[in-house]
Design a protein that fits this description.
Blueprint: H1 2-25, H2 35-46, H3 52-81, H4 93-112, H5 119-129, H6 134-162, H7 170-197
Helix pairs in contact: 1-2, 1-3, 2-6, 2-7, 3-5, 3-6, 4-5, 4-6
Keywords: Cell membrane, Membrane, Transmembrane, Transmembrane helix
Protein name: DedA protein
Subcellular location: Cell membrane
Amino acid sequence: MSSLIDVILSASYLGIFFIVFAETGLLVGFFLPGDSLLIAAGLLAAGGKLNLAGVMAAVVVGAFLGNTAGYFIGQRFGPAVFSNQNSRFFKPEYVSQAQTFFVKYGALAVILARFVPIVRTLVPTLAGVSRMPFLLYTLYNIIGALLWGVGLTALSYYLGQLIPDLDKYILLIVAVVLVVSVIPIVLKFLQARKRAVKP
């Protein structure tokens, strides 16, 4: 975690922007720190090492532009990727399933995906693949970016102001957040496996 803090302090707001952009918009960025970055940056702002408004601006703009890039990547390359009938992971029927999903859960999918690691990297691309209306997607994208970028950063900043020396426990806090945020993914995976083994 100290290495993450060193990266944040050395790269500052531009580094935060690029990490968030890659993690929320590029499929290869799923391994990058998202929630942990915001928590650490908020606590550093509470300690006076970063400016809170600067952190929030970097996160919100990076999250919005990242999701926009992910949408266009899915829209541009999705049809070709999902056109192979013999593909195990990119079957054509997944596109129609994604379209049905976004019609039914569009707002919740785009907004709440912000708070779930890996999922927030995949949802923008799937939204583009399924041809979710761009203006509607943009509205949800803005709301999600604000709730995640401002909300999580402000919460960690507030806790850092409220509890002295909380930055010493960044590792523990981030670990708890990661476990809680990954629980829904694990549960869905286990449910899918259970359905798959049923005769």
